[in-house]
Amino acid sequence: DQILDAGSNSFWNLLLAAVAIGASVLLARYARRAIRGKLREYEGLDNYTGAVIGRITGWAIVFLGVVLALVILGVDMAPVVLGVVLVGAFLLLSGKSFIENWAAGILLQARAPYHPGDRIKTQGYVGTVELTNSRSVVLRQGDGQIIHIPNVEVLQNPLTNQTGDEGGRRCSLEFGVADRTDLDAAERLLVESAVATPGVRSEPVPTAWVSSLGDTTINLELRFWVDFKDRHVVRSAVAHEALARIAAAGISMPYPTQELIIARDVEPDTHGVKPRGAD
Question: Which SS3 state, helix, strand or coil, does residue 146 take?
Fold first, then answer.
């Protein structure tokens, strides 16, 4: 009786309340369809995300319609609002992880730092993106394993999209030559080795220079660009070609050596050693 005085409501109040609820249901259905249709225009968002957003919007509209109907019927809204706040707080706290990951998943799809099929690196994992769901980003690693990374962690940490231009991969090889080597000639030889190897891109052009000074060698670094999918094969082919040309040119590639000196005719130290058999 304190919340609702049924005797104070007329037929018209009941009719208006029913109209308010019915109108909210119809408006919610239209809003869900409109939101799903609008979100389909965004290429990065999947159908599931649009359906969830449309469903939440529909529930909110129906809830407002019910509240309006209760107001028309003269219901005291203070207990209702308190109950809704308590239920909402409980759902928010209990589903905090799910809500965070769901919201992060929407942001990832909206910003589109990657697309399904892209190869990305994040949180120490490298793989091809299978999909982004309400909880995680699903990666397929090179060995076939499936990794689920929470959306929040992907959103809050560095992410490298390794797809981009499939040819944009730089490789490098290091060669150690003797200290009296003609460095200019050796650098030209390395560049020619890369240029002559099939699969090495002409742009950017291969380059070579002195990268560091070792204990027994002068280290030359050769850099060149290849297609991503062929990077291992081409890098190996360049190494074979460069080593063959270095050997043909008579360029020495010394390796670290150790010299072990064994001293002979050294008197043993017998100080403090008792003769055998002595007590």
Answer: strand
